[in-house]
Design goal:
The chain is α/β, with parallel strands linked by helices. 41% of the residues lie in helices and 18% in strands. The longest helix is centred in the N-terminal third of the chain and has 33 residues. The structure holds adenosine-5'-diphosphate and magnesium ion. The site of magnesium ion has 4 residues, from helix 12.
Amino acid sequence: MQLGDSIKFLPGVGEVRARLLEKELGIRTAEDLLWHFPFRYIDRTKVYRINELTEDRELTHVQFRGRVTGVSYTGEGRKRRFTVYVSDSTGSAELVWFQGVKWIEKRIEVGREYLIFGRPSFYRHELSMVHPEVETMEQALTRRTESGMQGIYPSTEKLSAAFGTKGLYQLQCSLWPLIRESIADYMPRAVCEKYGLPTLKEALHDIHFPPSTEGARRAQYRLKFDELLGVQLGVQSRRTERLQKMEGFYFPKVGELFNDFYQKRLPFPLTGAQKRVIHEIRKDTVTGYQMNRLLQGDVGSGKTMVALMSMLLAVDNGFQACMMAPTEILARQHFATLSRLLQELPIRVAILTGASKAKERRTALEGIASGEVQILIGTHALIEEKVQFANLGFVVIDEQHRFGVEQRARLWTKNARPPHILVMTATPIPRTLAMTLYGDLDVSVIDELPPGRQPIRTYHYTDAARLKLFGFMREQIKAGRQVYVVYPLIKESEKMDYKNLMEGYEAISRDFPLPEYITEVCHGQMKAQDKEISMDRFKRGEAHILVATSVIEVGVDVPNATVMVIESAERFGLSQLHQLRGRVGRGGGQSYCILMSGEKLSRESRERLRAMCETTDGFRLAELDLKLRGAGDINGTLQSGMAFDLKIANPTLDVQILSLTKEAAEEILSHDPSLSLPENRGLSALKARYSGTPQIDFSRIS
Ligand code: ADP
Ligand code: MG
């Protein structure tokens, strides 16, 4: 058999099952099957005693030896059920069949000993197994297997029905001897040696039939390395190509606007990190290449100021700049902030959003087309066809995780030459990971908060402590501070959430009565204009309490607000909680975040809330988040956005392998940029396999 042969030629498959394999798992050829890896192994060298199999051990597949003590039949026709009673010296168990009774009853002999394998379940604390595999001890001892660890493969219900639970494993067992000789390694020997990689043949053998847990790990390491190296070769070549091809606008001047603003209008000294990033951007814009930069900075680290100063740089050089925000509220806020900061300077700023009225819209569109308006702030509306810039040179995208990569690409097409692009995000992602996900972006980090910020104190209260909470809110309001109260809004239960929010709002209005206290409400079902009015009141300090859904999550800036109360905090993810908490602690005053939840919490929720109380470091929380949510979940989300399919590597968790492959790719490409040396030919194919552009929508990761 050849690797490229249809899987239907593999003994035990045939036309019908081949079609099923293709439909369910996309497996068409022998090679596809070979690259279908187990996600877990069962140790078949371990034989349990019955009394070791207890409910609390949460074992998924086990085997034990038992002697048949009797059988019984119950029910009739389609409800017929065949039960086999077995025992060993430590206890007894029941094996149950609803199907295939005719077949199994012939194989069961009372008084005989069998090796039984299956998924344990418990009925009144008694062990039972439905449709286990049974073999006589003689059969078990002569059974030929590739190793003691049996792989469990990703499968589907239909496939399990057609092939049985062990089906994919058995297919692998029969495939291996047929193709083992045709596996050729494409990895240059030098790379294998440097990174301690087993050969491809060893790795493929051991991933399916590991000699030990360590052997499985080594095989996984090699196969993950291959995938991530493929990704890195693609990313890095693309970047080189972009730098060669994409001519970018040239911003040679640091001009009057920039200097004037820097010397006279800056409301505070920049932090070292802000200065460094502005410098990095400045360096990018004098190379003649197009800048494509990701700016990561924790919430409150002052990204807006960096955006503003970079836009001034563009305007000084005769270009227009625009800044795109993910929400209406945020766009309005940026517009207000920038207009205020720039009011004394000879520069025109306009705003355009989906909710812009005719006049505002006209001002923006005409001003932008004629070049009179130099800076345009807005939402997605900025990428509509109608928006024609006279000479757009610089684009800022705030809070990237709300924008798909495609939208970013569309902005480019607004010019013959692409503008420089600065993408800003507060989602902390390890740098190497960002490289993989965002393809060819350069990354800058603001790793320093403005001075004078006191760490936010975070507490977790249950509903029983509500009176205490209200007392605390009164104290803070008396001291001149403002308070946010945030309710979850999850799409599936929107109605319920909305009800909770309104009830909460009413309760607070009752407990904090007028005229002493003024409470505003803001949520997604309100008209844009009404939202704006209540946000404005809160921003101007005319309201003490803002009850809101997570619409305020991103970017809202009210330095006098020092208390963030998060209701049903257990329903938010860690990164969302962190974002919300970032709404306070923006002025000089001590700020607080109060996480409210019910008494009953899952282990995971409890850990999330505890982590929030323990640290304010976004990177640490992001790491913990990955751990808590596990590989599958996150990988699924990431992969759904990737143009290529990673079968085994998870760039989120395999960060170390990722950075090794980055280094390896750099080295390989530095000697052979087009991968045309004979020893690198195989890598060229590997690169091609992973060369799609990733399409990540970060809103789905938070
Ligand atoms: P984010 O990075 O979350 O977008 P912002 O740009 O909204 O943060 O800044 C958060 C707050 O910190 C704002 O009130 C801003 O005016 C203030 N700020 C930004 N830079 C500095 C600085 N260098 N010194 C003092 N305050 C600053
Ligand atoms: Mg911001």
